[in-house]
Write a structure and sequence with these properties.
With 231 residues, the protein is of the alpha/beta class. The chain is built from ten helices and eight strands. Strands 1, 2, 3, 4, 5, 6, 7 and 8 form an eight-stranded mixed sheet that branches. Strand 3 and strand 4 form a beta hairpin. Helix 3 packs antiparallel against helix 4.
Length: 231
């Protein structure tokens, strides 16, 4: 194709990711296709933005379904009905290092996103969009970006950022939203410790440009749409 690369980046922002979805819905009205993920060549998201990226980029979920998923996850994580009392929360933080039940969150994400690996979603879900979810590698100092990707590189164009494409998609969702204090970190099979991507790149636009140059060497960028979540 002679056209340049189209990139979409989605900031972190917790429950404010519903604003991200509203912006994407408005943008869709001006696009030639109804699936916004299919319009972009690369979608990169951080934290709650990573959840949206996984939905529209890897699983081809409609925006309305992504909105429902975001609400469900917000309720599962932060609803007052399921919350512990203040003393119990303090005890959980002191003993387990987490304010909310990470195991329950992991199970909820597994039910929503399924157990496919990132790279398997490309073939099994029919997505041609490249997707990267930003997390933070925190067992190094200072923390570094760690990207879960649904793509691999050619031998001549490696990324400067560590990452993985074989991890189950729900683990990627859990990792990018593992905000310190709120949820426990995710520990990979090789011992690397992963937490919320907002620790290193709440706005992942610069990471996306780097990745695009490696995935599509020699191709110019037509547009980069960076969607924030307000202040």
């Amino acid at each position: 194709s002679s056209r340049g690369i189209r990139i979409l980046t989605l900031d972190g922002g917790g429950s404010r990711s519903l604003l991200t979805i509203a912006i994407l819905k408005a943008l869709t009205r001006y696009l030639p296709c109804h699936q916004i993920g299919a319009f972009f060549d690369l979608v990169v998201g951080t934290s709650a933005g990573g959840l949206v990226a996984l939905g529209i980029g890897c699983l081809n979920l409609p925006l309305q379904m992504s909105s429902t998923v975001a609400r469900e996850i917000s309720v599962a994580a932060f609803s007052k009905g399921g919350a512990l009392g203040s003393i119990e929360k303090l005890v959980r933080i002191l003993i387990k290092g987490e304010k909310h039940d990470s195991r329950a969150m992991t199970e909820h994400l597994r039910q929503v996103y399924g157990e496919l690996s990132m790279v398997d979603t490309t073939a099994l879900c029919g997505s041609t969009t490249k997707v990267a979810v930003v997390t933070a590698l925190t067992n190094v100092s200072p923390p570094e970006p760690f990207l879960f990707r649904n793509y691999t590189y050619g031998p001549d164009s490696p990324s400067r950022y560590q990452g993985d494409h074989s991890v189950a998609i729900y683990h990627c969702a859990r990792a990018t939203t593992a905000a310190p204090v709120y949820f426990s970190p995710v520990v990979l099979h090789d011992g690397r410790v992963i937490q919320d991507g907002a620790l290193v790149a709440n706005n992942p636009a610069h990471l996306a440009l780097h990745e695009a140059a490696r995935i599509f060497p020699g191709r110019a960028v037509d547009c980069l749409v960076s969607v924030g979540t307000g202040r």
